């Protein structure tokens, strides 16, 4: 009897310790960040002018670490996944844990938020497949699931019409928001690339150096040619132009309408981050710790900054500063116009998350699931 | 770990091992012959530790390391966030003295990465190319282990797992340097001779094979599935519990298909070689079958025709000779001329290195390590004795001794304290030592020309298009000029003149493996060199027997054997002629060093202590209640200075907690030749001493002790100890407690040159003589002397069988003398463990040890398990123990089996009959005894 009582007590205590992922009174508005890279273009530019002054607002942590992804913002909630198979929601203002969902495996990319659903992919532990999941965060319920062959470590793409998943084995799947597949295209080539889209196309690269452009509507191939070295960088669309880098360190500007390379610029080492751009320049960092800013029209160098770091995380670009995480336990605030490092935030862990600004709060993240929120200050 | 010399790694597998138990009852000694003055070079990502004159190479090594770091940072998409300790030794001999690892370091180990504290330890072996390779190899280990540790931690999974060794070492090779001649030769031999290990079985193989097969497999993965898959294998490591599943998932094929495809690709690559190449036994006559044989030197005198060489046939390397008559083609079994590796004079031989030369007058020069450096021994064949031993203070390693034709001068290469590997001559007439070169280029294998005016040698001083390739050079002793003799895109070694000195023969790897090549030798620069042989695997060394016969030491079927190669049997049609491209040559090359501000450079090393090990325990039992304790050890970065802390509480009642703390603090210093340790202790509580009667007693003892070890050589040492302890002992049932202030001291002489097989020693001998005295200097309650003599000898019957004999006598004599004990699997088998007790004890054992089963594989439905090296023993034991009067002689005979588990534990199962009643009759039934432990 005592043993039974102890068991019941143990179960009760354990259950009461877990906090279910339930978000209430939420609405999708224009201020939210519902996907990695804000929108289908993967645009990491924020039209704000921040000063170099940052004040730590709160710090929270998750059970596992994050890969090179970012937090999402939904109203007053910060949503983040982790590599121990969890999806968390924190209070945006104070970092308090609202709830989390736990699965066996890893959620290696940022989820996608649409309506009252969170869509994410679980890389299943001990299984050779991953699972696309549609989660109802109001009722804490999985509504749909779909098995995907292999691993998914490429960020999902949020389109108006649905979600694009690109697997590591080169299978591109378009889901609608009900959780069904609209189309599937299998390229049978390793792909470690975050795809991007514009009004017409979806684009990504393969490790064979192929640039693949699909018609967004039906997934038919619009363009597929080997034009670069192995491609593992993220893609970004700037109207009809596509920017990406390759493993030889070359940054490319490709015109999707004319199907040709506009210009290329060699940074000297492998690029895995996504290039970021504003009205006049493209900025990208490489794995040897170099950041380059290139003129959008000509592809000529504007500035180059060498560090001892390693840039595998996509930065955030504002009117004033480039906020560049460095895996070597730093975040640089670099003057976006001239490339001078204005300030350096030192971390005691490797910095991994792509920064996000929302309503004056800058979100950064480091190893072992550390998430920091900073208050930013606008330059008048 | 990097295995630099692959042949040695074969020895590591196939021959018995040394036991490193310096601080056990026996064991060889790791002798710190040198006192190193350590300095630290702090670079962006490394703390580089070096000593004395090694500064230049430390700066070069720092540059290599920083360059490699930048490369691996990109390759792994990863960064190491702490400074990596990189520890350099200027020679392998010094490297063997390191305290960073407690074990002995065999000749073939070219460096290691110590996982616990992340230390990289590397010796400089004379070649900058090899130095760079080893630094890069070990750095791949650092990045890989750190990356995998972080991946597992990121996923909140047990982060102590690692991929299998073949992947770990294969990756380190694959990403640290290009495929080379040695790798190619090993793979050719494995595939063509049916020794290729498939992926399925690679987990069960150790040694150099896994380095090369692992490297080749990753090359196959890169070519077949894509280079990106290699990093993905690591990144997917968290996902599955077996590496097999990780491979299947990452590569997208079934494991068996991957394995088959790889095996097929290897066969497809290597089988066609037989169209143009041939094995050694096809074109040459095999002269030896056994062991490893190197440096053949043919000598003819008084009608006797003999080959002198260095070999290893039983685990000990020695100088051998064998009769061989070329004309009749008759040869005899090799016999040991000078037995090595049993005493300090011939402490070790350098097997694969060129280390034996023979003069026309019959003087043999061979190199051994003796104490802390290499020496050259001169052995007269005529007088059958060593006539002289040359040792030079400034030289640490010596290689390739060769005589001038008049026998008056010896030329050789040696490494100095800076790490430079240069040419030297020693003149026997005036005892003059002359240094010919003095730079960081590696000069090897020098020989004199006919009139002794020039020295021909191979060197990596090749500059220009084929920079750092080993070409042949000529040193003019009159002008001191060095000129190119060859300039090709290949590596040349072991030059030797034909008997008429008109042609120069050498080995060269120009087209894949080392074959025998020839060039004319006269005053003019030669336009061409010619390949004479086209063996599928390498010739390592050779010497002329007459004008048309060459004795070669060649690699085939994973062994090194001698062959007689008749040059007249070689077809000219297969000759390959290669032009020397002297126009591409330059005078010298320079390597880059790291440049640091002066204040960062050359800091004196100050001991940096970090935690080695910490463990705590809390136990509860119904009799003694709860007790707990902890043990932790600290050591400095170089492992020279260690602290051990032990704390434990044995209180049975709360009121006894303070009184019953058991505390010991010990410091051990290994930095100098004389190792010492001292400490203080306090032990208190109820105990049961198996040496005494079966009673519990309470004892509180506290005091301090000092111990000292002085090694004479690797094989012999002196041990001394002194302890002072205050003891209050309450024996249950006794009226008065026994108080004593005990002073104990002992002096021991220990000898051990044994070789070990999987379950215990199989060759050599071990001996300990101990004299000790213990007295109570305050109360005179206790006063006795101790005497121990224990001798063990191992009579080798074959490579893996031996007869082991042991005779030991132990005595404590005096007031309250402690008892010794025997009985059980370790001494008097069949008798209850530790049941035979007495102040005096003798034991004698004879045991036949032999191999029983080499591999025992048990296949369960889901998995299989293998047991290797199951050994058998037939034994006879006798002994007795007594206090005042001799009681009776006991004994046992029987049979046993032993199984070694992971080289950490040996399980023993014995059965037999006890001999009882004062050795007069066997017990009626059989006894069966199961225990663990090494053979005596």
Number of helices of chain A: 1
Shape of chain B: globular
* Mean pLDDT value of chain A: 94
Which value, in Å, is the CA radius of gyration of chain A? 21 Å
Q: What best-fitting shape of chain A do the alpha-carbon axes yield? A: globular
- What gap, in angstroms, lies between the N and C termini of chain A? 70 Å
Describe the structure.
The complex is a heterodimer of chains A (380) and B (936). Chain A is 4% helix and 46% strand. Chain A is mainly beta and 380 residues long. In chain A, 51% of the residues are buried. The mean pLDDT of chain A is 94. In chain B, helix 4 packs across helix 5 (165-174) and helix 5 crosses helix 7. Chain B is globular, with a radius of gyration of 31 Å. The chains are: A mainly beta (380), B mainly beta (936). Chain A binds chain B through residues 63-65, 67, 83-84, 105-106, 123, 125-126, 128, 150-151, 153, 168-169, 190, 192, 207, 230, 232, 269-270, 272, 286-289, 308-310, 312, 327-329, 350, 367-368, and chain B through 44, 70, 73-74, 77-79, 81, 150, 153-156, 226-229, 232, 235-236, 238-241, 245, 248-249, 252.
Keywords:
heterodimer, A: 380 residues, mainly beta, five-stranded antiparallel beta sheet, four-stranded antiparallel beta sheet, 4% helix, globular, B: 936 residues, 55 strands, disordered N terminus
In short:
Chain A is mostly beta strands. Chain A has one helix and 33 strands. In chain A, the strands form eight sheets. In chain A, strands 6, 7, 8, 9 and 10 form a five-stranded antiparallel beta sheet that branches. In chain A, strands 1-33-32-31 form a four-stranded antiparallel beta sheet, with no helix packed on it.
């Amino acid at each position: 009897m005592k043993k039974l009582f102890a068991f019941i007590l143990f179960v009760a205590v354990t259950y009461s310790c877990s906090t279910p992922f339930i978000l209430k009174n939420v609405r999708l508005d224009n201020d939210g960040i519902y996907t990695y890279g804000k929108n289908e273009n993967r645009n990491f530019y924020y039209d704000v002018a921040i000063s170099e002054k940052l004040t730590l607002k709160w710090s929270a942590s998750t059970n596992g670490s994050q890969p090179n992804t970012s937090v999402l913002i939904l109203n007053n909630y910060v949503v983040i996944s982790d590599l121990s198979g969890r999806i968390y929601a924190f209070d945006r203002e104070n970092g308090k844990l609202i709830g989390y969902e736990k699965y066996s495996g890893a959620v290696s990319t940022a989820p996608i938020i649409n309506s009252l659903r969170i869509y994410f992919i679980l890389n299943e532990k001990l299984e050779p497949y991953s699972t696309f999941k549609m989660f109802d965060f109001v009722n804490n319920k999985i509504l749909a699931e779909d098995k995907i062959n292999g691993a998914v470590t490429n960020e999902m793409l949020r389109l108006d019409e649905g979600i694009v998943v690109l697997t590591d084995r080169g299978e591109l799947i378009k889901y609608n928001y009900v959780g069904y597949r609209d189309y599937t295209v299998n390229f049978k080539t390793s792909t470690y690339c975050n795809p991007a889209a514009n009004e017409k196309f979806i684009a990504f690269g393969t490790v064979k150096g192929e640039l693949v452009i699909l018609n967004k509507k039906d997934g038919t191939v619009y363009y597929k040619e080997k034009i670069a070295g192995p491609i593992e960088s993220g893609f970004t669309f700037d109207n009809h132009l596509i920017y990406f880098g390759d493993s030889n360190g070359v940054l490319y500007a490709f015109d999707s309408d004319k199907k040709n390379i506009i210009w290329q610029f060699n940074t000297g080492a492998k690029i895995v981050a996504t290039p970021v751009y504003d009205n006049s320049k493209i900025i990208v960092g490489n794995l040897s710790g170099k950041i380059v800013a290139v003129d959008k029209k000509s592809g000529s160098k504007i500035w180059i900054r060498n560090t001892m770091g390693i840039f595998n995380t996509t930065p955030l670009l504002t009117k004033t500063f480039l906020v560049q995480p460095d895996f070597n336990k730093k975040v640089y605030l670099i003057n976006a116009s001239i490339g001078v490092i204005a300030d350096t935030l030192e971390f005691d862990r490797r910095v991994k998350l792509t920064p996000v600004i929302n309503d004056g709060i800058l979100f950064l993240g480091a190893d072992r699931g550390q998430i920091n929120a900073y208050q930013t200050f606008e330059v008048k | 770990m990097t295995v630099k010399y692959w042949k040695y790694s074969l020895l590591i597998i196939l021959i018995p091992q040394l036991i490193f138990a310096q601080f056990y009852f026996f064991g060889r000694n790791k002798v710190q012959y040198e006192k190193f003055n350590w300095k630290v070079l702090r670079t962006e990502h490394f703390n580089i530790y070096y000593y004395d004159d090694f500064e230049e190479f430390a700066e070069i090594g720092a540059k290599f390391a920083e360059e490699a770091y930048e490369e691996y940072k990109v390759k792994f998409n990863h960064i190491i966030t702490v400074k990596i300790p990189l520890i350099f030794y200027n020679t392998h001999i010094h490297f063997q003295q390191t305290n960073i690892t407690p074990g002995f370091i065999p000749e073939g180990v070219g460096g290691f990465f110590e996982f616990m504290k992340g230390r990289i330890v590397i010796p400089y072996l004379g070649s900058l190319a090899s130095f760079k390779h080893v630094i890069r190899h070990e750095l791949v280990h650092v990045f890989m282990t750190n990356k995998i540790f972080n991946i597992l931690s990121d996923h909140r999974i047990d982060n102590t797992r690692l991929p299998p060794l073949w992947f770990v070492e294969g990756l380190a090779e694959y990403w640290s340097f290009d495929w080379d001649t040695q790798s190619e030769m090993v793979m050719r031999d494995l595939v063509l001779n049916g020794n290729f290990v498939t992926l399925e079985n690679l987990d069960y193989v150790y040694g150099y094979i896994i380095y090369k097969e692992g490297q080749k497999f990753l090359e196959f993965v890169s070519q077949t599935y894509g280079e990106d898959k290699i990093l993905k294998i690591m990144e997917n490591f968290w996902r599955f519990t077996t590496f097999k599943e990780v491979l299947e998932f990452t590569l997208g094929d079934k494991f068996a298909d991957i394995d088959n495809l790889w095996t097929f690709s290897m066969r497809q690559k290597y089988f066609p070689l037989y169209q143009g190449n041939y094995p050694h036994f096809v074109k040459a006559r095999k002269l030896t079958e056994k062991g490893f044989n190197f440096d053949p030197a043919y000598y003819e005198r008084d009608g006797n025709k003999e080959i002198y060489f260095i070999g290893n046939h039983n685990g000990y390397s020695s100088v051998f000779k064998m009769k061989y008559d070329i004309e009749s083609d008759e040869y005899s079994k090799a016999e040991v001329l000078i037995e090595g590796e049993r005493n300090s004079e011939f402490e070790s031989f350098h097997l694969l290195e060129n280390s034996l030369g023979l003069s026309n007058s019959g003087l043999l020069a061979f190199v051994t390590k003796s104490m802390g450096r290499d020496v050259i021994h001169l052995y007269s064949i005529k007088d059958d004795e060593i006539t002289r031993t040359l040792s030079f203070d400034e030289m640490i390693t010596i290689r390739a001794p060769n005589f001038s034709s008049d026998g008056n001068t010896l030329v050789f290469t040696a490494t100095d304290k800076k790490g430079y590997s240069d040419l030297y001559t020693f003149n026997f007439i005036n005892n003059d030592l002359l240094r010919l070169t003095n730079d960081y280029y590696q000069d090897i294998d020098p020989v004199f020309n006919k009139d002794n005016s020039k020295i021909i040698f191979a060197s990596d001083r090749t500059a220009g298009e084929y920079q750092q390739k080993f070409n042949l050079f000529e040193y003019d002793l009159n002008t001191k000029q060095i000129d190119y003799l060859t300039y090709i895109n290949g590596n040349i070694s072991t030059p030797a003149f034909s008997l008429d000195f008109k042609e120069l023969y050498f080995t060269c790897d120009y087209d894949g493996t080392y074959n025998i090549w020839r060039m004319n030798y006269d005053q003019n620069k030669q336009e061409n060199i010619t390949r004479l042989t086209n063996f599928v695997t390498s010739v390592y060394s050779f010497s002329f027997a007459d004008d048309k016969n060459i004795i070669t030491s060649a690699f085939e079927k994973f062994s090194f054997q001698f062959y007689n190669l008749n040059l007249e049997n070689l077809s000219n049609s297969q000759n390959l002629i290669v032009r020397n491209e002297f126009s591409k040559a330059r005078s010298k090359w320079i390597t880059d060093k790291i440049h640091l501000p002066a204040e960062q450079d050359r800091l004196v090393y100050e001991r940096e202590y970090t935690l080695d090990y910490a463990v705590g325990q809390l136990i509860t039992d119904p009799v003694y209640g709860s007790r707990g304790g902890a043990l932790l050890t600290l050591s400095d970065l170089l492992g020279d200075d260690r602290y051990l802390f032990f704390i434990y509480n044995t209180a049975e009642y709360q009121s006894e907690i303070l009184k019953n703390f058991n505390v010991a603090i010990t410091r051990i210093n290994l930095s100098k030749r004389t190792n010492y340790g001292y400490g203080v202790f306090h032990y208190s509580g109820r105990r049961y001493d198996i040496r005494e009667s079966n009673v519990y007693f309470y004892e509180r003892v506290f005091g301090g002790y000092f111990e000292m070890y002085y090694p004479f050589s690797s094989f012999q040492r002196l041990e001394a100890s002194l302890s002072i302890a205050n003891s209050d002992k309450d024996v249950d049932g006794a009226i008065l407690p026994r108080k004593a202030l005990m002073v104990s001291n002992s002096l021991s002489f220990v000898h051990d040159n044994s070789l070990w097989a999987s379950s215990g020693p199989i060759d050599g001998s071990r001996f300990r003589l101990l004299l000790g005295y213990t007295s109570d200097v305050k109360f005179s309650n206790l006063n006795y002397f101790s005497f121990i003599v224990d001798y063990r000898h191992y009579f080798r019957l074959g490579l893996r069988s031996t007869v082991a004999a042991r005779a030991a006598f132990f005595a404590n004599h005096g007031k309250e003398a402690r008892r010794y004990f025997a009985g059980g699997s370790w001494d008097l088998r069949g008798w209850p463990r530790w049941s035979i007790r007495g102040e005096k004890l003798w034991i004698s054992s004879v045991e036949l040890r032999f191999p029983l089963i080499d591999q025992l594989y048990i296949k369960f439905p889901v998995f299989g398990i293998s047991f290797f090296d199951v050994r058998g023993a037939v034994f006879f034991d006798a002994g007795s123990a007594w206090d005042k009067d001799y009681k009776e002689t006991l004994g046992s005979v029987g049979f046993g089996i032993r199984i070694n588990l992971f080289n950490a534990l040996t399980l023993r199962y014995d059965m037999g009959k006890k001999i009882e009643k004062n050795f007069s009759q066997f017990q009626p039934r059989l006894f069966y005894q199961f225990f663990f432990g090494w053979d005596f």
